[in-house]
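Follow-up to my post from last week.
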Amino acid sequence: MKIETLIYGIYPKSEELRRSISKYEREKIGTPEIVKEFEKEKNELIERFSSSGISYFSDPVLNWYDIFRPFSLMFTGFELGQLTRYKETNTFYRLPVVHDVGDNTILYDRILEGKENPPADLFSSSTASGHLAFFPGAHSFYAMSDIRRNISEEEFSAFVIKNYMQIMKRYGMRGAVIFDPVEYGDASLSPLNPLIEKYPIYLVTTGKLSKKNFAGLNGDLASIISDQMPGNIKVASENSRVPGIKAIDARNTLMESAEELRHLVSRIGEDARVDRIIVANSESFDFLPRQIADRKTEVMAELGE
Amino acid sequence: MAGKKLETQEIGSFRKPEYLSRKFHTGSEGEVEPLKERATIETLQLFNRAGLENIGVGGEMFRWEMYEHFAQYITGLKFYGMVRSFDNRYYKKGSIVSELRRTSSLHGDELDFLLRNSKGEIKLPITGPYTMMDWSFNEHYKDRDEVAVAFGRILNEEIRDLKKRWDIARPGEKFQVQIDEPATTTHPAEMDTVVESINRSVEGIGGAEFSLHVCYSKDYRVLYDRVPEMKLQGLNLEYANRDKIVTGTGDSDRPGYNDIRYFAEIEDRKFLGVGVTDVHIDEIEPVEVIEDRIKYVLGIIDDPERIKINPDCGLRTRSREIGYEKLRNMVIARDRVVEKL
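User reply:
Got it. Predicted complex:
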């Protein structure tokens, strides 16, 4: 059984970076200085993930205040709404307010303005092997937004994926993690087709998967990473090249042991009759203190050895 | 039952004066304690000037933050670092690594000081067991229910301790405790745990009035459904934040208060502390708007002794000047309504 590893989502910032952001907010340091600090810490993390043998990792997106924020700022027809509780956590995101999905002009400069989000580019320009873009899934984006006009999920998803394609091209990304924190239910993932046809896509899902979610896809995903629920690994292995499981708890400081994880993954792999499995975190590591996130990534590196 | 008509009360925190907030974490104990006392006296004077009947604990000047304060007095919690709440705002979230135990009283010093320095009604806010559980990582206990009950046991010890102090200083007078549970309805499937841990917190303690404060819930009906099972005398809730700042006593004028009808159908004995001023905005709601909010509630629960009047939550996020103006308008509005009863 070959175990591969994937880290995705917003990574917690170091104490130094937090302090620098506070200084930036109080105008004690300027935009060039804070941009430089973000780039430095992002590059350090990418280097660490890469050199420790993590198979795949999304950009650490340290500068995103939440998973929707950059897109609410950059997408034409979107704006930032009120602070809203993120699922059942004590963490909050700014509700995307969607007025229109007719214009695919992306206002890239808005993420560099430093208003409502620290100024730093969307993704690092790293060429490290395993470095991926990161996007919220269109299904969750729709479910977790305030849609002001009568816009269907299908229409919304097509718009969002078209914009993601533009972003992939602009930043020269070679693959992407798409994270859906909301369960699909009966939703179809066919709007993902343009992305799947061009890039390896690692889809991180939530809750129960169903065959019909993937029925309209024109090809295999690079991976479908799912919660450990009956039937999920089978659906994932039938619709992606490598199935994956969310086995590193990003909502608790309790440390996993590499040995126990190996046993768990081997058992799941044998049951599903697959010879490769990806192990990923359950959520962005930003729900944890930085020290614990670092230790969990070390366990993941050990697991992939 | 409240006993007074539309009694006005504070909910908990109030903005600390700068001389205290600047030194709270950096000053020595000998330096900070007198500042806490001075700030409490000044805040009590401010509450009295505003005309508040129940002065709470004088704005929680002895506490920095509701989770962190509780955590200081127990063993079994370990802090690995800060956790982000939103944007660049962080909070301390402890990890439970061994059995939770209280090391000393959480609020004894604060209560002793108040008993020496005030004569009015006091209501002690204490962070609730479910919220302490929900805001902690758990590395030790079997499940979330077990954690909440463990916090409930600690709270029970603390309340017994405080009640002893109270009974010595104010024998025969009503001892009031407000259990603060902002996390109450964030996991609707865990309402059994909420009820169990709250009841564990107050178990076996007689001669006291217990209330529950909840704010910014997506749906209070989740809570209302379970209120009859809670061994409490009342609720103090936030409503103004979800209301319009217009006059009028019709359902459409008062959207923030509509669901009190649902509460009234379920519960006919416990009192309801009604938030009539929004603590998240600087705008001072006009007296007429607050008056209409109170009248609307009285239209649903026609018993002024079962209704208390309060801000939505603690006023710590507003300046002391704005906090005062909000409380003052709240008291004027309440007095006008009482006059016409």
